[in-house]
Amino acid sequence: MLAEIRSLNEECGVFGIWGHPNATQLTYYGLHALQHRGQEGAGIVSTDGEALRPLKGEGMVSEVFTPEKIEKIAGHAAIGHVRYATAGGSGIENVQPLLFNSTTGSLAISHNGNLVNATQLKGHLERQGSIFQTTSDTEVLAHLIKRSGYATFEEKAKNALSLLKGAFACVILTEEAMYIALDPNGLRPLSLGKLGDAWVAASETCAFDIVGAEFVRSVEPGEFLIITKDGMRAERFAYPEERSICTMEYVYFSRPDSDIDGINVHTARKRLGVQLAKEVQIDADVVTGVPDSSISAAIGYSEQSGIPYELGMIKNRYVGRTFIQPSQDLREQGVKMKLSPVRQVVNGKRVIMVDDSIVRGTTSRRIVTLLKEAGATEVHVVISSPPIKNPCFYGIDISTAGELIAANNTIEEMREIIGADSLTFLSVDGMVQNIGRTDPGSKCGHCLACFTGEYPTNIYPDTVLPHEKEKVK
């Protein structure tokens, strides 16, 4: 179930639209806006009310889809998905949406997140006779729906969803309806919008902007939305539990122009940079951020500290994110291709390099080296989040602590490994309080498990690698 760790990967992205004559084309554009959430595979399943029709492949959105292919699956409703391999690993069979056909009706599922009880559920289903066609934990939901004893599809789906534990933002499509569901802790982001009379769902609001949809509201934890030709109605499959949205959505994953639960990501990251400057005072000449996710925090740090912000690194827009590469050698080569220092900006300068996180340390070490090779006299690394010390079981590709540099080294040891003149992280309280969520409680509705080791759900024993069980609280 658990993917082999490579680096800090994003969760997947889901998109759905119901009631628009160009639903398939709009889903393509929605997925394009969510491309940053996964670059290993993409898929669309559409319906014209008669049948569900799939189109999917491995690679980027622009590589998988063509206008001719999209035209062949035209319909009034569609759901889509971009992915990187978490549960189940790579392979075309695991590219979503997953489509299931039966004599009692078809359904397609797009799922963002990881189920922590997938192994238990799968074992139970197999003992009852289920045969799985993929290694994705998403398939578990389809089997639960089909094997449910309830009379209607809605009741079957709600019953199946109530059995899932972990993180899941789901969009489900049948010939008659589109269904939207979010796990009771709200670990993943999911928003609802409208485009004329059509309903739209997406992992991030930036997908609404590209298709011209208007944001309506966030999907609530434990909520089950049913959208048909008669409109939309909201029900529940579970009572909401303690809100625990993934903090890394604000720190790193989401696009800066997205709003997550009413908070603009760029604004939140800028506040993190301001707080970082309050916590860390460094005598330096310039502040620069690692493109793209750290630029907002770098600007905030610069404004608060009074040290000028400069474009010290340029990103090559034609190179994919380095964590997508499947081997360490390719990742390191990818950093060289992806980032270039601006020599005239950093030469002879004491540089504060703002980044959002350090996972393995490989990329940080290479960037520090690049800056020093370009003439920087000092490179001080400041991180707009706390050290990542614990594995994530909810959809981020860090399912083992073995390769997390902060789990196995002190901050001073980390500094030496990456070659920086100093290394400082933002405090947990500073991060939580400055993102801006107003949920009651000290956690303000965040999942902080990768920082603190405190998980918002039960973590099942076979989810954790044997040698790391003592680390999971």
UniProtKB/TrEMBL annotation:
Cofactor(s) needed: [4Fe-4S] cluster; Mg(2+)
Pathway as given in its UniProt record: Purine metabolism; IMP biosynthesis via de novo pathway; N(1)-(5-phospho-D-ribosyl)glycinamide from 5-phospho-alpha-D-ribose 1-diphosphate: step 1/2
UniProt keywords, alphabetically: 4Fe-4S, Glutamine amidotransferase, Glycosyltransferase, Iron, Iron-sulfur, Magnesium, Metal-binding, Purine biosynthesis, Transferase
UniProt xrefs under Pfam families: GATase_6 (PF13522), Pribosyltran (PF00156)
Domain Glutamine amidotransferase type-2: 12-230
Residues that, per the record, bind Mg(2+): 293, 355-356
Cofactor note as given: Binds 1 [4Fe-4S] cluster per subunit.
Top EC class of this enzyme: transferase
Cited function: Catalyzes the formation of phosphoribosylamine from phosphoribosylpyrophosphate (PRPP) and glutamine.
HAMAP family hit by this protein: PurF (MF_01931)
Name used for this protein in its record: Amidophosphoribosyltransferase
Gene Ontology biological-process entries: 'de novo' IMP biosynthetic process; purine nucleobase biosynthetic process
Gene behind the chain: purF
GO molecular function: 4 iron, 4 sulfur cluster binding; amidophosphoribosyltransferase activity; magnesium ion binding
Reaction it catalyzes: 5-phospho-beta-D-ribosylamine + L-glutamate + diphosphate = 5-phospho-alpha-D-ribose 1-diphosphate + L-glutamine + H2O
Active site, renumbered: 12 (nucleophile)
Annotated positions binding [4Fe-4S] cluster: 246, 392, 447, 450
Family: In the C-terminal section; belongs to the purine/pyrimidine phosphoribosyltransferase family.
Keyword Iron: yes
EC number(s) from the headed UniProt entry: 2.4.2.14
